[in-house]
Amino acid sequence: MTPNIPRTMGQQFGRRSWAEPWKIKMVEPLAETTPDQRARALEEAGYNTFLLKSEDVYIDLLTDSGTGAMSDRQWAGMMLGDEAYAGSKNFYRLEAAIQRHYGYRHILPTHQGRGAEHLISRCAIKPGQLVPGNMYFTTTRLHQELAGGRFVDVICDEAHDTSSLAPFKGNIDLGKLEALIRTEGAEKVAYVSLAGTVNMAGGQPVSMANVKAVSELCGKHGVKLYLDATRMAENAFFIQEREPGYADVPIAQILREFCDYTDGAWMSGKKDNLVNIGGWLAVNDWDLYEELRNQIVIYEGLHTYGGLAGRDMEAMAIGIEECVQDDYMRSRVGQVQYLGELLTDWNVPIVKPVGGHAVFLDAKAFYPHIPQSEFPAQVLAAELYLDSGIRAMERGVVSAGRNPATGDHYYPRLELTRLTIPRRVYTQAHMDVVAESVKMVFERATETRGLRMTYEPKYLRFFQAKFARL
After folding, report:
1. Sequence ranges of the domains in the chain
2. What percent of the chain has pLDDT above 90?
3. pLDDT (0 to 100) of residue 15
4. What is the pLDDT of residues 268-320, one digit of tens each?
């Protein structure tokens, strides 16, 4: 079995084996557990993989957020931290890296992406306004709602079909967006919230043609377009691989062109930017920046550190340079595609095409006998851990939460379990172990029962909710 090599790599090497463009310099031992140990750990965690202790996990695919491996250059940069409270030289290096590769004028560091979401929501949303976007993300939507906004999904219909092979299932449906603006009025729209490689849709990308068209539509109506740039370098890879005219364009250039169509962005640096903590917020409008700069002092820290140590900003500046390198990105997405190809060959139901940061298992297809009210995606994450100690996460009805007006569960069309691949951490052999475990769980799916929720926190319940077997 060879990886599903991206076309640009395949043209060079055909179907020969390939290797990651890095070598291992330091190792972290992994501990295997017994089935009895895993059963006890899972029951203590209330069948929620977020509540497992990391020492009880063998292969950790819970998230790609802050779980990547930093390079030798980044670790060296950590020793160059200028921990001045104001005006750290590391801030100016971070600012320059963001301006060079993302193109925005005014930069604010934050402790992580959630801090940036909070600030843009507070400053750009008036109570009662709508925030159209290409499928919700959990923390983004919550911050928008807490600011008095209401998220409206305007993603293309193909995004809700796990079997559709449309190359850009993250695209905004221009007809839906135009109809919303005309019906509600442009003044009722706070801004358009656009995410690259849409997480809840299975890591599906947005095309360059789509962002250009959305930008033109927003400009016509005087509506701002803001970008969740968390995985935009991965999105740029898919444009290079799939969109006509971009096969020979470097990822760095594609990323910059994409961002140029937008008015600002927020970023969790714990993904594309290859650090364990940190994020940033960037805008072109000076007046908005002034308000954000005032607010960041209240909630994050001074505008030249935003809750980060100087060493963290230095590591992120270096990570920005590394994440746009073509050979790195081919290996990063290639590993995800390798796992997806193994599961596809075994007829395991997954979201297709395979996304950039994870393989998403279709829990509805795994467990057609388990209704969504019994949390099939949560069940699947639990079963994977019981089988082999692999930690995945739920992306279905638990993550969707409840309608704040009615109190009823949201029932999304997609009920997914996410196998999220950390950057530069695991080998192809680990992917083989994961694939074999998924296959084993799928083969005994008919024996599996649902769950009931025994504890539910007020916000973002998927992090801390607890369950029990029915």
Report:
1. 7-60+326-469, 72-323
2. 94
3. 56
4. 999 999 999 999 999 999 999 999 999 999 999 999 999 999 999 999 999 99
Provide the 10 A C-beta neighbour count for residue 325. 16
DSSP state of 158: G
pTM of structure:
0.93
Helix (H, G, I), strand (E, B) or coil at 303: coil
- Tens of pLDDT, residues 404-424: 889 999 999 999 999 999 999
d(CA 210, CA 193): 14
Asked if 238 contacts 196 with a C-beta cutoff of 8 angstroms, the reply is: no
Q: Which CATH architecture has domain 7-60+326-469?
A: Alpha-Beta Complex (3.90)
Which of the following is catalytic: 395, 418, 423, 424? 395
Active-site residue, selected from the candidate residues 49, 67, 138, 162: 138
Q: Which residues contact 179 (CB under 8 A, 6 or more apart)?
A: none
Whole-number CA gyration radius for the chain: 21
The residue behind tokens 């081919």 is: 330
For position 200, what pLDDT does the model report? Answer: 93
What token pair was written down for 268? 């969790």
Question: Any catalytic annotation for residue 442?
Answer: no
Query: What torsion, rounded to 10 degrees, do the Cα atoms 396, 413, 436, 355 define?
Result: -90
DSSP for 97-165, please give it.
HHHHHT--SEEEEESSHHHHHHHHHHHH--TT-EEEESS--HHHHHHHHHTT-EEEE-B-GGGG-TT--
Q: Is 461 noted as a catalytic residue in this protein?
A: no
Active site residue 102: no
Q: 447 in helix, strand or coil? A: helix
Catalytic residue among 271, 311, 391, 423: 271
Compute the distance between CA of residue 274 and CA of residue 315 in angstroms, rounded to an integer.
8
The answer to whether 350 touches 161, Cβ cutoff 8 Å, is no
Report domain 72-323's class.
Answer: alpha beta
What letter represents residue 113's amino acid? G
Is 228 an annotated catalytic residue?
yes
Residue 375 falls in the annotated catalytic set: no
Question: Parallel, antiparallel, or unpaired for β 390-391 and 106-110?
Answer: unpaired
Question: How far, in Å, CA of 419 to CA of 416, rounded?
Answer: 10
Q: Model confidence over 357-409: pLDDT tens digits?
A: 999 999 999 999 999 999 999 999 999 999 999 999 999 999 999 998 899 99
Q: Which residue in the list 151, 289, 426, 462 is annotated as catalytic?
A: 462
Q: Give the per-residue pLDDT at 138.
A: 93
The first and second tokens of residue 121, run together, are: 């929501």
